[in-house]
Amino acid sequence: MKQKKHKALAATAALLSVATLAAACSSGSTGGSAADGKAPAGATGTAQDQKPKVAPKIAIYMNTNAIARKPEGSEPKALEEVTNYVKEQTGVEATAIIPPKGSEKDKLNVLLASGEQLDLFQGDWDQYKQAIIPLNDLLNKYGPDIKKAWDADAWKLMTDKDGKIWGIPRIITTAPFPIWVRADWLKKLNLPMPKTLDELEGVLKAFKEKDPDGNGKEDTIPILLDDRFQYGLVGAFTEFGYSNWVDPKDGKLKIPELQPGYVDFLAKMADWYQKGYIYKETFAKFDVQQMLKTNRVGAVDIWYSGLTINAPLVGQTVPEMDYQFIPEIKGPKGYLQTAYPGTTTAMLVTKSSKNPDAVIKFINWQYQNVENHLTSWYGIKDKNWKWADQQKKTVEVTNPNPYAGEFMVTLGLAMETKYAPSDPLRAKHTQFLNNELTKFDKVKMPVDLGIVYDKEALKEKVPNAGDLDRLRKEEVIKFIMGARPLSDYNKFVDELYKAGLDKLIDFQTEEYKKQKK
C-alpha cells in the first residue's frame, strides 16, 4: 500500500513539475545557464535572496547510498514534511529519484539520455563530462560554504587541466585499510599485539592451530581480505607501497605490479593461502556481517567501515568479540598500509538542468551548518532526530525513522566528522572516522597522489585499458591461489605489455609530469 501511495505521490509531483515550469516561464523568471555553468545575471549568493513566486524544482538521483537504512524510500508524509521544510529554508523544491537496486548505473544512463528531468547525481566527473557542467561561476556566487568545506587537495581532484571545476568532492585521501585483529583472542592465547609482519604471521598461525573460538574444530579463519586488500599489505614488501612508482631506469611512471618487491608480496600471500591463513573464498563475494557472525574470523584487512559498523552489531550476540586495529606494524620495507587516494567521484550537475543555480543553493544550505546536513539525512529536528548532547555534538536518531534521507547530498568527511551518533553500536565507527581515518604518519603515500587521470583521454589513448585492468586483477588472484605458479611472473608481465601496458605507462607518465610541474 505504501508503494502505491508513493507512486501516486510521484505522479502528482511530475504534474506539479510541469505546472511549476510553465508558471516560472510565464512569470519571466530565469535560472542559470546549464550550457556554460554560469549563474544568472544580477543574482546574489544567499538564501535570503528574493525568491521567485514559484520555487524552482530540482530532481536528485539518489545513487549515493545515503538511503541505505531505508532503501525503499520515505513514508509519504515524512517526505512531504522534509520537502516543505527544505523549500522554506532554501527556496528550492527538491524531489528524489530512487534507483532500482542492482541497476543504478543503467537507470542513470537512461535518465541522462531520455530528457527527463534530472539535475543532480553522483558519479566520476571525468566519465560524465559530456553530460554535466563546470561549476566555477555557480560556486563563486551560490556556494561559499561548499567551497570552505573542502581543502585545496579535494578541489584539485575536481579540477581539469583548464581550471574548470566539474563536481563537489565526495571521496578524499584516507587510510581505510589497517589490519584489525581479535584482541580477545590475543589475550586468550597470551600473544602481544603484532608490530612486525613476522609477528602477524605468527598470530595467524596461532589462530589457525590453537582453536581460539573454543569450538573444538580446526575451522578458524585467520584473516579475511576484500578485493582492495593490497592497500593494507603491499607496503611491507615495496618501497612505495601499493602505488604507481617512477622507475629510475627510464623515468617512467609504472604500475605497482612492476615495482621491486611486489613478487615477494605475492609469494607471501600464496604461502598464507596455501597454509589456510587466508579465507579460501576471500576473492569471491561474501557478506562481512555473516562472516563475523560465525565467530571464526581472527583478523581482517577490509575497507574500515565493513568492520567498524558490523563488528559491534555482531558483538551483541558474541559479547567477547573485540576487534582492534594494529596501530603500528612494519615489514621488511616499512609500514604495511598505503593510503587510499581520493577519487573523482563527486556530486554532479547535469547539462540539462534548467535551474543549476537552485541546485547549488540547495547543496550550499546543507554545508552551512551541521543541523542542515542532519535534517537532510535524518529529517525534522526534534522529531526525527535530536541532539543527545549538543556540546559534544552527539545525535540521537528516531528508530524507526519514517524519513529515508532522500535529500542528503553532502556525504563525506567534510560534514560527517562534525557530529557523532549517540548509539553505542556506532562508537567504534565514529572513533575511527574522526581520529584515525585521515592520519598518515604510519602509512605510505602514493607517488602520484593528487594526479587526475582523465578517463576519457585514457580510453582514447589506451583502448585496452579495461582489459589490462581485468588481466592484472585476475592473474594476481591466480598467483595467490596457486592456480598459476610464480615462475610464470615474467610471462605475465610480457602478457601485460602485449595487451598495451606500454601505452598505459606512457599515458600515466605524461599526465604525471604535466601535473607535477
From TrEMBL:
<feature type="signal peptide">
    <location>
        <begin position="1"/>
        <end position="24"/>
    </location>
</feature>
<dbReference type="InterPro" id="IPR050490">
    <property type="entry name" value="Bact_solute-bd_prot1"/>
</dbReference>
<feature type="region of interest" description="Disordered">
    <location>
        <begin position="29"/>
        <end position="50"/>
    </location>
</feature>
<feature type="compositionally biased region" description="Low complexity">
    <location>
        <begin position="29"/>
        <end position="39"/>
    </location>
</feature>
<keyword id="KW-0732">Signal</keyword>
<protein>
    <submittedName>
        <fullName>Extracellular solute-binding protein</fullName>
    </submittedName>
</protein>
